[in-house]
Design brief:
The structure is a homodimer.
Chain A (H helix, E strand, L loop, with lengths): L2 E10 L3 H11 L13 H7 L2 E11 L14 E11 L7 H9 L10 E8 L3 H5 L6 H9 L6 E5 L8 H13 L4 E3 L12 H19 L4 E5 L4 H13 L4 E5 H4 L1 H8 L5 E5 L3 H5 L4 E3 L1 H11 L3 E3 L11 H12 L9 E4 L8 H8 L5 E3 L2 H4 L5 H16 L4 H7 L1 H10 L3
Parallel strand pairs in A: 4-10, 5-6, 5-13, 6-7, 7-8, 8-9, 9-11, 11-12, 12-13
Antiparallel strand pairs in A: 1-3, 1-4, 2-3
Helix pairs in contact in A: 6-7, 12-13, 14-16, 16-18, 17-18
Chain lengths: ~425, ~425
C-alpha cells in the first residue's frame, strides 16, 4: 500500500527514539492507555511508522517551553515518519491534521518543525494541481525570456477605484506585466470590490486592445466562500486573468474550491506565514508548505526576496524558490513570487543564487517611488534583470542603464 | 466611525514606540518609502492607530531570531492598535490578514503575539454566531445541571463502522452524552464516512427511541467544501445532531459556510493550535482566537484540560475556559471542550478553578480503559463531577463512589 512520508526536525527532553514513537502513536492509533479493540492487525495497517532517525546536536536549553528535562539536556534529531494512504484517502484537511495536528502540543517535544513531505503518485490522479502554473502565467501575460515584473497597489488601502485605475494605467503604459491588490484590501468603504474591478479592467482591456498586451491584475477575492465565488465570477466576466487569495486566512478547503474553477490564475499570498515558520524549531518549513498549496491548485506563491525587508535570510529565500521550481509529480508548476522591499538591485544576486528567470518579481515602493516616475521604475526593473542574466553586477548595470542608475541612487543606500 | 482594536505582546530591538508605529503602518497604508497618492486625509481615514503602549521588561536575548539589537537589549511591551471598520467591511479573512498577516515577519520585532481583539457591535448584525452554543447543545443532548460527558472513539483510526457502532452502543447504554470521531479519522479505507454514519446513527436512533436520550455524535466532516456539505447533509438525514470540523486544517472560510447551515451543532477541533500558541512570544493567544471562531459560528471549541497530557499549563487552560464563557456581544455562546488525558480526577480542580459546569468534559482512554468497562467509566465521570460541585476532593470522592474509586486506582498514579 502506498505511504505518505513526513520529515520533522525535533527536539526532545527524552530519547529521540521514544519521542518519535510517541509522535507516530499520537498521530495514528494511539491514546494514553491501551484500549480494547487496538489489535495487532489494526496497528500494522493503520499505525504510523518511524522510518528513520538522524541524531543531531544535544543542547542544554529547550527551544520552546512546556516541558523540562530531568537531565538538563535536550536532543535534536531529524525524524521521518510514514502513514498508509488508507488512513486518509484523499482529503487535504485530514492530511494536514495528521501531519501538523496535535503533535505540536506533545510534552515529549520541546521543538518540532515539519520539514518536508513526500506524497505517492496516486495523489496526482486525485488532484488536478495548478491550472496555469509558470507556462500558463507566461501565456496569459505574453512574457517570455525574463521574469514577470509586477507591483502592488500602494498605499495598501485608501485609494478609490478611479485612483487605482489611474495608477494601473500609468503602470500598464510603462510596460508592467502584473499588478496586485494589497492583502489588506478586499472591499473597503471607498473601494468596493465590483467598482474596483470595473475601473481597473476598463483600463487593462483598453490597453490590451491597443497594444495586444494584457496586464495581469490579481484582485484580492479573499473572503467567505460564496462571496469569493461571486467575486471570482465578476473578475472572469470583466476579462480579468487572475485572483488573489490569502492562503492562511482563507484556509485550504475554500482555496481549493476557488482553484477548482480553473478560469483564473490564482495568486497565493502567504501572509501569516511568519507565525508558522519564523522559529527554527516550531511550525513548518516552506518545502512542505508549498506542496500542500500546489495540490490545492495555487498557480503563484510568495517566497519573500533576497535582501528583503523582513526577517528571512537569503538562504531561506533561495531554498523556497528552489522548492517551487522542483517538479512535483509530472507538472504542478507554481510560479515563485519574489517580493518584500524589492527593487532592481537584488536582481543580480537573485539570479546568481537561483539561476532562474521563472519568477514573478514584485517591487512595491521600488516602482511607484522611482525618482523618474513609475514608468521609469518598470523600465529599471527590466534593465536590472537583463543585466543580471548577462552577468553584470549592480555597479556595472548602473553604468549601462540610466533608469536603473536612478534606482540605485534612491534605493541602493538602504 | 467604529474601530477594531487588537492588543499585542511584542518584543523589539528598537524602541517600543517605533516598532508599534511600523506595525500600524505595515498593516494599513504603509510601504517602505513614501509614495504618491498617500495623502494626509487618506492616512487619517484608513491608517491604523497606536492606541497605547505599556512598557514591560527589557531582556538581553531575543525571543525569536531574525533581527539583532545593536545595543544588545530587547524591549517588551503590550501594544494596542486600532483600525477603522471601513478598512475591511465585514470579511473574516481580510480581518485575519490585517490582525495576523505580514507583521510576524517584520524585522522590527523579535517576538509578537496577538493577545486579544475587540470588535464593534455592528459585527453582531453581520454574523449570526453559533447556532446552538451552550443552551442549544444542552437541549440537543438533554443534559442540564452538570457538564456534558463525552468521549473519543479510540483507536483513533482503524475500527470498522460496525466496531465503531458497537462501541457507541456500549457507551450509549452507559449513559454517555457525546461521542466524537478522532480528528485523524475522516473516511478511511475500512471506515467510509457514509457507512460509519449509517452504522453509528442506527445505534443512536434506536437508543433514543428506547430511552428518549439521543447521544450527540460529532462526525468528522473535515474535507473539501463540497464533500463537507455532502457529509453534513448525510448526518442531517441520518438524524445526527453534530459535525466536527478541524478548524485550522479546514480554514475559516469553509468552516463558516458549514456553520451557516445551522442544522447541526459544530464541534470545533483546534488541532494544529500548538504551533500557533506554544511559544510565549509568537502567534496568537486563545482569547483572540476563540472570538474569530465564534464569529464564524462554531458551537463547541477545544480548550485542553487541567493536568493535560500536553504542554499547556493549568493557568492557560483556565484562561481559555473563561474566554469561552465571557459573553460576546449579547450571546454568541460557545461550549468549551475539555480534553487531553482527562479522567474524573481532574473534575474537582477544574471546578475549583472555573466554577462552571458549562463544559463538554471529554475523556478518551479515561472512559474506554476503565477497569470495570466503559459503562463504569461514564458513571465514574458523572460521579466525579457531582463530587466536584459538592466540594469534595479526589480522595473524598473515591471514598464515596466505587466506580470513581476504581478510576483513581487506575489513572490516579499518572
Amino acid at each position: 500500500m502506498e505511504r505518505i512520508t513526513a520529515t520533522y526536525y525535533i527536539e526532545t527532553p527524552f530519547s529521540s527514539e521514544s519521542a518519535a514513537t510517541v509522535l507516530a502513536g499520537e498521530q495514528s492509533s494511539g491514546t494514553f492507555v491501551a484500549v480494547p479493540g487496538e489489535t495487532e492487525e489494526l496497528k500494522y495497517r493503520f499505525a504510523a511508522r518511524v522510518e528513520s532517525i538522524d541524531h543531531l546536536e544535544t543542547v542544554s536549553e529547550s527551544a520552546i517551553p512546556g516541558s523540562t528535562s530531568p537531565s538538563g539536556t535536550y536532543h535534536r534529531a531529524r525524524v521521518t515518519v510514514s502513514w498508509s494512504v488508507e488512513n486518509f484517502g484523499y482529503n487535504l484537511p485530514v492530511l494536514i491534521s495528521t501531519l501538523q495536528g496535535n503533535l505540536y502540543e506533545i510534552r515529549q517535544f520541546t521543538g518540532l518543525k515539519l520539514l518536508d513531505i513526500q506524497l505517492p503518485d496516486s495523489y496526482a490522479d486525485q488532484y488536478a494541481g495548478p491550472a496555469f502554473g509558470i507556462p500558463g502565467c507566461r501565456q496569459l501575460t505574453g512574457v517570455q525570456g525574463r521574469p514577470l515584473i509586477g507591483t502592488i497597489i500602494k498605499p495598501s488601502i485608501g485609494l478609490t477605484p478611479e485612483q487605482t485605475a489611474e495608477l494601473v494605467k500609468t503602470l500598464a503604459e510603462a510596460g508592467i506585466d502584473f499588478v496586485k491588490d494589497d492583502e489588506l484590501m478586499g472591499s473597503s468603504a471607498n473601494s468596493p470590490f465590483g467598482k474596483r474591478v470595473d475601473a481597473v479592467m476598463d483600463v487593462i482591456n483598453r490597453h490590451a486592445d491597443r497594444t495586444g498586451k494584457k496586464v495581469m491584475y490579481a484582485f484580492n477575492i479573499s473572503g467567505e466562500i460564496d462571496e469569493m465565488l461571486q467575486r471570482y465570477e465578476k473578475v472572469v466576466n470583466a476579462g480579468g486573468t487572475c485572483a488573489m487569495v490569502s492562503l492562511n486566512s482563507v484556509g485550504i478547503s475554500a482555496t481549493k474550491k476557488i482553484c477548482d474553477q480553473r478560469a483564473l490564475a490564482i495568486h497565493g499570498h502567504r501572509n501569516g506565514w511568519g507565525m508558522m515558520t519564523r522559529h527554527p524549531l516550531l511550525g513548518i518549513e516552506f518545502p512542505a508548505y508549498q506542496k500542500l498549496w500546489r495540490l490545492a491548485g495555487v498557480d503563484q506563491i510568495h517566497v519573500n526576496g533576497i535582501q528583503n525587508k523582513f526577517w528571512e535570510s537569503d538562504d531561506s529565500v533561495v531554498q523556497s524558490i528552489e522548492a517551487c521550481l522542483t517538479p512535483m509529480f509530472s507538472g504542478y508548476s507554481v510560479l515563485p513570487v519574489v517580493s518584500s522591499g524589492q527593487w532592481g538591485g537584488q536582481a543580480p544576486e537573485t539570479y546568481r543564487r537561483t539561476k532562474t528567470i521563472d519568477l514573478l518579481y514584485m517591487a512595491g515602493g521600488g516602482i511607484l517611488a522611482h525618482p523618474m516616475g513609475p514608468s521609469a521604475g518598470v523600465i529599471a526593473l527590466q534593465q536590472a534583470w537583463q543585466a543580471a542574466v548577462n552577468g553584470l553586477n549592480v555597479a556595472e548595470a548602473a553604468g549601462k542603464y540610466p533608469e536603473f542608475a536612478k534606482s540605485v541612487e534612491k534605493f541602493g543606500g538602504k
